[in-house]
Amino acid sequence: MRKLSLLLLVFILLLGACAEQPKQEENKAGEETVKAQNSQTSEADHKDRFIFESYGTLRSLDPACGYDTVSHMRVMNLYEPLVFFDGSATDKFVPVLATEVPSIENGGITDGGKTYTFKIRKGVKFHKGGELTAEDVVYSIKRHMIVDQEGGPMWMMLEALVGVPSTRKDGKIREGVFEKIDKSIEAKGDKVIFHLPKPFPPLMSVLAYSYGGIIMDKQWCVANGCWDGNIVTAAKYNNPAFGSEPLAKIENGSGPYTMLKWEPSVEFIFERFDGYWGPKPAIKTAIIRYNQEWSSRKLALQNGDADRVSVDAQYLSEVQNMKNVVVHSIPQLSVTAAIFCQNINPEANPNIGSGKLDGEGIPPNFFSDIHVRRAFLHAFDRTTYARDVWNDKVVMPTSPNAEGMPFHKDEPVYDFDLKKAAEEMKQAWNGELWEKGFKMVINHNTGNEQREAAAHMLAENIMSLNPKFQVEVRSMDWKDYVIAYRKYQFPIFIIGWGADFPDPDNFIFTFMSSDGAYGKFSGYKNEEVNRLCKEGRFEIDPAKRKPIYERLQDMWYEEAVGCMIYQKIDHFAYRDNVKGFVPHPMLDIEWENIKLLSK
Prior knowledge:
Number of helices: 19
Shape: globular
Structural class: alpha+beta
Strand order of the largest sheet: 12-13-14-1-15-20-16-19
């Protein structure tokens, strides 16, 4: 499906975010575990212990709200979905909490693809003691959609089961949306039935990969402040503020591991769940340590003090020939871009100076002028960036539709030309910008050197155009970064996207639609784009979909929406005694399926 041979070494997509310590009792138990570990000469030597050092930070354990690869890895080892990917496949699935994968052949998919029936597994225990029922499944799916946190992952489930990408429109709850959610799924005995308004081909992939398919214990959720199960009260639980999610710091999944300890920006410790319904995992304890220093991570891997570490592309050569280490390089369905925000939030915003076009800042709608956007695009030297940052071992994308996706099209790019950039700036804001100058900040997430390099390239080249142009580059920890861009605080946010499901809709809609996970926070609104995104999503005929997505990719260039930076390959570096890694193009560098590992 993809031209894997075209994908060369690319950098790690990091995501993560903020959280606080779990319960005191859990922390105490975790501290005792750590003391015992430190008494050993080499922790990674333990057959039943796995240690992974990375620099992704965790934001939330609430499956309805987390939407980043760090949260995904934690949640998917603690909780479970109805189905999951079959090995490395993106279009084949295996049952998890369901006893079989619905299909037309087995009668699980009926009504022309609008009804899905899942048989729910019996004898499954949650970590706190409850037993899985079909009602838990119904509650979980409904609760996820009701929560629908701003910028969160529930747009996929809502689009599939309700026919809209959000419970809100223009900041207000859509009339009747909760009633539609309530009717979209029901339990009948040990079966759960999904009722779709129209066929939604990616549904199985959405259930397997996204948080919308995570199943929880209804009684425990309600007892811990979640939706009470009454659709009349649903609005009360909609769109919680970041950090106030009721399940952000606690868990009660049915997965193979429980959370023993979570010390933010230090470590997260999984412990094997002895009551797990499936095969007993070989790994008893898994420790995920925060370590942003490559030299330290490298030493831990080399000395056997870690079983696996995150390896950025520029350091790949340092581990490829390392003794007792094996590296798996996996092409990813993932792209990274610098997105221009056309509607910046000026309130207490340190990134826009005075907030005015007076030489001391930029106005909130600074990037609404296409000449400004074009100038920044002409200031990005793709050739030099690929050579100096990646040693030319990188794919430089031209649109959000990742290489290897259906209907991918190579778009023209704004060539690196500082004279053209200057001409665009002279036309911007009726000539006032060139005369008065401006000050602004470009932020990148701490530790991501590829994004940092892109930020500095844009800043330095823009400043070279006019001494009155001042652009500062700052770093921010990811747990804060993901909140800030969702509050429209960044003039430019540099961010990556990995596939939720392998379809161009998942990329184009995300980056360009006014309802997309990134398009929304860019402030970019184009009615033609929004219309085409919706048409493409529900069009079944490939011959009709192709011109839709080709037109959208053309508009990415014509509208100068953002600057595509790179498409990546992730590098999974393990000690060679670790077995069980399964590559997957949608599960990136932060991913680890701990239950499959052994030593």
